[in-house]
Design a protein that fits this description.
- This protein is an all-alpha fold and 334 residues long.
- 65% of the residues lie in helices and 0% in strands.
- The chain has 13 helices and no strands.
- Helix 8 packs antiparallel against helix 10, helix 8 packs parallel to helix 11 and helix 10 runs antiparallel to helix 11.
- The chain is elongated and about 160 Å long.
- About 13% of the residues have low confidence.
Amino acid sequence: MDPNPTEARRRPSLPWWLPLVPLLWSRMARGALPFGSSPHRVFPDVLSEQQLLEAEDMTLSLLQDRGPGPLSLPPDLPDLRPECRELLLDFAHSSAELTRCVVRSARPVRLCQTCYPLFQQVASKMDNISRAVGNNSESQSCAKSLLMADRMQIVVILSEFFNTTWQEANCANCLTNNSENLSNSTEHFLTLFNQTLTCFEHNLQGSSHSLLPPKNYSEVCKNCHAAYKSLSSLYNEMQKMNDLEKKAEPGTHLCIDVEDAMNITRKLWSRTFNCSVPCSDTVPVIAVSVFILFLPVVFYLSSFLHSEQKKRKLILPKRLKSSTSFANIQENSN
């Protein structure tokens, strides 16, 4: 409301041409209006330059302070209620904080472990807008004006973007059931990951002052083998548990934070440091390999022996036996 009602009532009564008088007078004094045939300024000594500037400033102030008139906006212009605007501002602040956190945690990926409180906050603000608290008309009008009043539906689009990003990152696999804290397995993995990176850094600093060539990472491979093996084993166990818990959802992954951390560690271990993990089951692997290599030899040897036995057991036909016996009888008679 206007703090001075008397002045508010007095403003509409001013004639519409009154603010134009100082402006017209100043322009006449400057010779800007085509009165008279002389091209020079009219009334050069009536007003000074400073007075002309003050007259123009007063004119602009009068034009700005005009009361409601024919050019003012209609009183029934659609606008948000105060409670609806407060809900919108709360969602805007929460969305801005979440967007800032997501961008800052993009590389290396720390999205789920850093931004999950802000995501819960944005989801809560969206619930406050969308649901009708107490089923009253004010809350329903807020949901309608903020979510369904235009074709773009900016609030809905922004909320769906956050939900899609959260689902594609599989952040629920890093959190507890109520999504309020990180799970125990995730915290254990991140602890081992930090220990492994610390081991890499410590051994790199130690080998930089030695007589070894700069690309010889034998100390890293030797001293950090246990840490890397523990981290890799825990990651494999987490993958197995995730597959067992979500058999009905093919292609499920661990959360992006865990996957990105493991990818970084494996690239450093295999490509940068050129380390290799020796196989613990060397004897069984060698035995199976030798057995597979000797299978063709055993096959051909057994086939050869089997064919020789068949030749030895060859039985002569009966007709041949009778002819030989007849020849023996003739020889005996002679």
